[in-house]
Amino acid sequence: MRANGLIFGGGNVIIRRMKNNEREKLQKGLIRRFVPYYRPHLKLFVTDIICAALISAFNLIYPYITGEIIDNYVPNGLMNWLLISAFALLIFYIIKAGLNYFLQYWGHIVGVRIQKTLRSELFDHLEKMPLSFFDENKTGVIMSRLTNDLFEISELAHHGPEDVLLSAVTLVGAIAIMFTYDVWLALILLALVPLILIYTIFMRKRFVDVYDEMRVVQGEINADVESAVSGIRVARAYTAEEHEKIKFEHGNDAFAKCKGKQYKVMGQYYASMRFLLDFMNFAVILIGGVFFFNGRIEPGVYTAFIMYVTTFSNPIWTLTTIYEQIQQGLTGFNRFCNIMDKPTEPEDADATDCGRLNGDICFDNVSFSYKNDDSAKKVISGFTCKIGAGKTVALVGPSGGGKTTLCHLIPRFYEIDEGSISIDGKDIKSVTKKSLRENIGIVQQDVFLFNGTVKENIAYGDFNASDEQIIEAAKRANIHDYVMTLPDGYDTAVGERGVKLSGGQKQRISIARAFLKNPPILILDEATSALDNATEMLIQESLNELSEGRTTIVVAHRLSTVKNADEIIVVTPAGIAERGTHEQLMALNGIYKELYNYQFKNL
């Protein structure tokens, strides 16, 4: 919650604390930043705006023709003009229907296309974000940015300019025509407009605050749902359904309370606005009636004036209701910009493609600390180590020593604070991340399978691989025979996160990926620790074959799996405590021997 608020919620908290002029400046900046997204759809957008303007013009015609019929055509018996006017109105209504169809269909298409562009940009940016970003932010909150926020932005993209222009044209036209009828009655009507403006400004801050708060709460409840659904099996296993329900209800209550505050503000605002607009009608009916009885205006003018008040009040109501949409859209776009402004993974401008590496790795006085750690305590301090090409090195030791972190530093998942890491004499910062990672294969304890087929998941090792190469990789990982027993073979869906497969089967698919990738450097991070002994022995055979001829770094707590490593390094929070072969470390009678004897004391 702390870190999440820092990234997503914090920006809105700051906005709420801004002075009005600062908020205005921010919103103008957001609008300027948003406008360029219309450029690829400019022709369609302009056509949409023209349609909105024409609809506004048609809305002004009906009261005028009605006034003419009452004051001129009917009293003077001009039946032909009456029929012509009625037929003209019918034609206008037919055209207006077509324009409204265009507005509703193609106008929304503009919004959808802009939403598509924004979503593509955001997803592309997320793909380039450092892993520390995902360490600090919940998946559900990120999903909320990709869905809820972008939907609100697309609605603003469509309705914002369109409704504002439609309302503006109608307002200006209605006022101009009313002044031609009677200046004083028009001025009396306009005198009520400042009351509406003052009230809108008064309510503005309350709208901003409640919508910003709503965004934060909505992101949190999405994160809670995502976590609960992903962990449903753990909850069932520990009979923790009631706990999850209580946790969800806590967020759900916060959501309901926040939504209640939102609707309360909306209710106060809309009820007051509707009263002010109705009061306009009341004023015109009363004062216009007095003018009519005094002979200042004709019956048709009086009728037209009443109709123009409705025409006048409708766009005011539209503008007040769209204010809610503008706030939602701008808030969503601000949160979109907050992510887009976060730096992506750093890449040196002079970085070059490293090609295929041999795998000679050198850690030189490397120090590292996680940037989101308030204590800023170094996880790794002054680590120095050389791993020869083709050698197998095991990292063992107590938890918290930084073994997994060291593995994450090699492919530059995180950036080191001090020192350097080089491969084949090349500093990894001097080569592109893509080319560096193409040389590294990773098999982890927590295997992640994508929601797709067996073949698609193995193909992550090489998307250009043929079916024959995928099958060969599966055979080397000893998963081919099992796959052939599945209903659709390699085209069988594995389910979300591979839920339809056992832990050993998922691990074999992960190994098949690595075989298909055929990297010179291999990282095995607790690759068998979550498996039973029998399955571990079978998979260890595949891992031994996979490690042949590659520089292999093994992180393991089960020391039986690393006895044959070329070198074993005992890593503790204080740094390297011991290093050597299994026999050498056993002879030292130190940490390694103590750990080894502890694991095998009951055998």
What's this, in brief?
This protein has 603 residues and is of the alpha/beta class. It has 20 helices and 10 strands.
Provide an overview of this structure.
By secondary structure, the protein is of the alpha/beta class. The chain contains 20 helices and 10 strands. A 6-stranded mixed β-sheet has the order 6-7-8-3-9-10. Strand 7 (521-525), helix 18 (533-547) and strand 8 (551-555) form a beta-alpha-beta unit. The longest helix is centred in the middle third of the chain and has 53 residues, at 241-293.
Helix-and-strand structural type: alpha/beta
Q: What about the largest sheet?
A: 6 strands, mixed
The tally of beta strands, per DSSP, is 10
Spatial strand order of the main sheet? 6-7-8-3-9-10
Query: Which regions contain 5 or more consecutive residues with pLDDT less than 50?
Result: 1-18
What's the Cα radius of gyration? 35 Å
Q: In angstroms, what separates the terminal alpha carbons?
A: 46 Å
Q: Give me the strand/helix succession.
A: HHHHHHHHHHHEEEHEEHEHHHHEHEEEHH
Helix content: 55-70%
What percentage of amino acids are in beta strands?
Answer: 5-15%
Mean pLDDT: 81
Shape: elongated
Total number of helices? 20
